[in-house]
Design brief:
This protein is of the alpha+beta class. The chain is built from 14 helices and 51 strands. It folds into 4 domains: 222 residues, glycosyl hydrolase (family 31) (Immunoglobulin-like), CATH 2.60.40; 254 residues, Glycosidases (TIM Barrel, Alpha-Beta Barrel), CATH 3.20.20; 101 residues, Golgi alpha-mannosidase II (Immunoglobulin-like), CATH 2.60.40; 113 residues, Golgi alpha-mannosidase II (Immunoglobulin-like, Sandwich).
Length: 822
């Protein structure tokens, strides 16, 4: 008998059950519970476009999560009854026979549908979903391979994967979140299970995709778009956005395994300044430590460490040092991290209660149990001396965790973790459950510890291993890549998929970590990295040096040019980073994120374009050669709309911005946008959307230096009758004061009248921060006019030329201003 649904906002409804065959279904104020053959399915509407799905046999598993924010696991919506389930304002949820779950939008378009019942396998399980012929999948973090995961299968198990290649899986991170596209509608799925898990996006059966685990709960979240940026906002709401890093971290960073002794590091710093190669950070790998023991300094190779850090800071370099997850097993020698760790009982145990010991860089090592809140707090205190010395950032490496003894490259699965964490049941569990979150909790300990030591400064932590939600604590990189053209090519989809998995602030070892790049490869890699979120040149011990000058003046000049351009673009880069910290939109994003309906067949445009092109923020399109070692011309596919060559200002795309659904119209639009490019070593093609206002600055050598000139707002004019917009964000670049309103945000718009008159309106600054910019320059790209003057708030100002572009410069008092060009 069908139940009657009576909605009471404040009370849980207990209704007479709806019976489907041998199963029963009960509705509640925010979802449903269904049972059949000893299995229970629970679907909760967290919001109108967000669902949580849990399934279990016997008894419900613990309701806790390392990934999802506690507030986001609380329902904020009341549902309405349907014949076989319920609906929200955006979704229809139906349960059929065998607890088969189907999720549709309110127009009836199926978004996700079970392809059969959950298969229970000993302590594990597998969930199967129907896959349509043209369904596509993205995400899962730093997995190598193409941008699109369709037809591939992956394992989630954090693994030290030195020398990984395109087919290597698993590698360093386990981020069980993917973005799906089905008939032009986008959705996301977070499979919140920390055990060893797997995803199959049609490899075994192209009519199905699946995910499952060797243990733990069936617990996943369904996030509906329908646009991809909606899904990213939902994921940031669910797991938290990445906090805004310090401004210096977006400058050029030079690293090596390892700069040692101290004099070598100082020589690199001096050469960067002498050759006027802008740079903001230097990194130290493990050889600066005494016998590779974390939290030590070798007194012979680095005899003046505090003075060295101070001198680097005076020269405007921020020092980042490594601090591996393990602690050297060194009792009775005055090694504080080991002694205090033993005293506090902070290390992982064997099943018999003894400390687990395994070999890593310092030899025999023990491992903090980061599933314990008190252990993370202790570990955070170990940074006290480094923070006092002025070290700016910390690098959590080897935190899969890596152990050198076993083929698995990690510790045995039967070692014990003692979970002691708010929101969790206090209990002991095996490494099988804790393995994939140990790196994330390591970086959490570092972030929280450094924040406690410098309460109003933004911590900068880089981690190699992590889990979903780990973006709350650290930036990341793609691990120990190789110095090959193929690894340069793979960097682009890797970083885009990391961004789609919450880790927007990510990079790859520029030039490749393992091996020695030829000169042309290092040059091209340094050029391309200038447009990626983190620009860090890093190399392994025993390889040839990677610094920009190593291949002579000609290569150095090309490399310097792109590093300089990154610094000119810093106002734009930092503005995009701040957006990420609010809404989760990746800095480096695939084309479909900005143009989700542009491809002729309705599929993501990136798959048409070959996967090499990417957007830096909403306005810059970077188009490297999809086969970077080849010399033949390659085809560029610009999305619909007008586009300008960033380097020349020439208009290169004039198609309409209309996102037509009709295939013939879309074909006509895209036909105008195909350009043949000839690869050149000295050039990375970059394009700017027509209708944007791009903020730039004069060249500086580091982010501490005030630009000697105005903030430039470069107006890329749209087609007649269309408008344009842009914004620039700034703050002090290092503190948390911006969270209390101490920032500056300027928004600008423009319009073109029928007679060609251009009007630019710049709104008054939002926020209480007094920007460093005291003058503004507004310059124009694409104007048909040849004006000699412009009106600024009705006062005539002369037009001047800069970078071959006409513009007007004036004093800025952060108030609203109008510029008219006619």
């Amino acid at each position: 008998m069908q139940s009657r649904f009576v909605c009471r906002l404040s009370l849980l409804l207990v209704l007479s059950p709806l019976t489907i065959a041998a199963q029963q279904l009960r509705l509640t104020t925010n979802g449903l519970t269904a049972t059949a053959n000893g299995t229970t399915l629970e679907v909760t509407a967290l919001a109108d476009d967000k669902l949580r799905v849990r399934e279990w046999r016997r008894q419900a598993p613990e309701d806790a999560s390392w990934a999802v924010l506690p507030a986001s696991r609380t329902s904020r919506v009341t549902i309405s009854e349907d014949a076989r389930g319920f609906h929200t304002q955006k979704l229809i949820v139906e349960v059929g026979e065998g607890l088969s779950l189907k999720i549709s939008d309110r127009s009836g378009h199926v978004l996700q549908e079970d392809a059969g019942p959950t298969e229970w396998r000993d302590d594990g399980f597998m969930v199967f979903k129907r896959r349509t012929e043209n369904e596509h999948f993205f995400g899962l973090g730093d997995k190598p391979g193409p941008l699109d995961r369709t037809g591939e299968a992956f394992t989630m198990w954090n693994t030290d994967s030195f020398g990984w290649q395109e087919s290597t899986d698993p590698i360093y991170k386990s981020i069980p979140f993917f973005l799906g596209e089905r008939e032009g509608r986008y959705y996301g799925v977070l499979f919140d299970n920390t055990w060893r898990s797997s995803f199959d996006f049609g490899r075994a059966n192209d009519a199905k995709y699946s995910f499952g685990s060797l243990g733990g709960p069936v617990d996943y979240y369904f996030l509906y778009g329908p646009e991809p940026r909606d899904v990213m906002a939902d994921y940031a709401w669910l797991t938290g956005p990445a906090p805004l890093p310090p401004l210096w971290s977006f400058g050029f960073q030079q690293s090596r395994y390892t700069y040692s002794p101290e004099s070598q590091l100082m020589d690199v710093a001096a050469r960067l300044r002498k050759d006027k190669i802008p740079a903001d950070a230097l990194w130290l790998d493990i050889d600066f430590q005494k016998d590779n023991k974390p939290f030590t300094v070798d007194p012979e190779r680095f005899p003046n460490f505090p003075q060295m850090v101070s001198q680097l800071a005076k020269n405007h370099f921020h020092l980042v040092v490594i601090a591996d997850l393990h602690i050297a097993d060194k009792p009775n020698v005055g090694y504080g991290p080991f002694d205090s760790g033993v005293a506090g009982d902070h290390f992982i145990k064997n099943p018999d209660g003894t400390m687990y010991v395994g070999p890593v860089w310092p030899g025999s090592s023990v491992f903090p149990d980061f599933t314990r809140q008190q252990t993370r707090q202790w570990f955070g205190t170990l940074y006290k001396d480094f923070v006092a010395d002025g070290v700016a950032g910390f690098w959590d490496d080897m935190n899969e965790p890596a152990v050198f003894r076993y083929p698995s490259k990690t510790m045995p699965l039967d070692v014990q973790h003692r979970i002691d964490e708010p929101g969790f049941v206090t209990r002991t569990t095996s490494h099988g459950e804790a393995h994939n979150i140990l790196g994330m909790q390591n970086s959490r300990a570092t972030y929280d510890g450094v924040l406690a030591l410098r309460p109003n400064e933004r911590p900068y932590v880089m981690t190699r291993a992590s889990y979903a939600g780990g973006q709350r604590y650290a930036v990341t990189w793609s691990g120990d890549n190789s110095s090959t053209w193929n690894h340069l090519r793979m960097t682009i989809p890797q970083l885009m998929n990391l961004g789609l998995s919450g880790f927007s602030f990510a990079g790859a070892d520029v030039g490749g970590f393992a091996g020695s790049p030829p000169a042309d490869l290092l040059t091209k890699w340094l050029e391309l990295a200038a447009f990626q979120p983190i620009d860090r040149d890093h190399s392994a011990k025993g390889t040839r040096m990677h610094e920009p000058w190593v291949d002579g003046p000609e290569h150095e000049a090309m490399r310097r040019r792109y590093i300089e351009e990154r610094y000119r673009l810093l106002p734009y880069i930092y503005t995009v980073a701040e957006e990420t910290s609010r809404d989760g939109m990746p800095m480096m994003r695939p084309l479909f994120m900005e143009f989700p309906h542009a491809a002729t067949d309705g599929s993501p445009l990136d798959l048409v374009a070959g996967g090499a092109e990417f957007m830096l923020g909403p306005d810059l399109l970077v188009a490297p050669n999809p086969s970077p070692e080849e010399v033949a011309p390659y085809e560029l596919h610009l999305p619909p709309g007008s586009w300008y060559d960033y380097w020349t200002g020439k208009r290169v795309g004039v198609a309409s911005k209309t996102q037509a659904r009709d295939a013939e119209v879309r074909d006509a639009l895209l036909q105008n946008q195909q350009i043949l490019l000839k690869p050149e070593l000295a050039t990375v093609p970059v394009y700017v959307r027509g209708g944007v206002i791009l903020p730039l600055q004069e060249l500086v050598q580091n982010t501490d230096e005030a630009p000697n000139g105005p903030l430039t707002l470069r107006v890329y004019l749209p087609a007649a009758g269309e408008g344009c917009e842009g914004e620039v964000y700034s703050d002090d670049g290092h503190s948390l004061d911006y969270r209390r309103g101490e920032f500056s945000r300027r928004r600008a718009t423009c319009s073109i009248a029928g007679d060609g008159t251009v009007t630019v309106n710049i709104a008054a600054a939002e926020g209480s921060y007094q920007s460093q910019w005291k003058r503004l320059r507004v310059e124009f790209v694409g104007t048909r006019l040849e004006p000699h003057e412009a009106l600024v708030n009705d006062v005539t100002h002369p037009m001047t030329m800069s970078h071959s572009l006409p513009g007007v410069e004036f004093a800025d008092d952060a108030k609203a201003v109008s510029i008219v060009l006619h």
